[in-house]
Amino acid sequence: MEKALNRIHPVSDPEATYFLQVSWEKDLGSSFGILLTDGQCAWTGTVSEVDISREAADMEMDREKYVEELKKALVAVEESAGRYNFVIA
Question: Are the CB atoms for 1 and 24 separated by under 8 Å?
Answer without folding.
Answer: yes
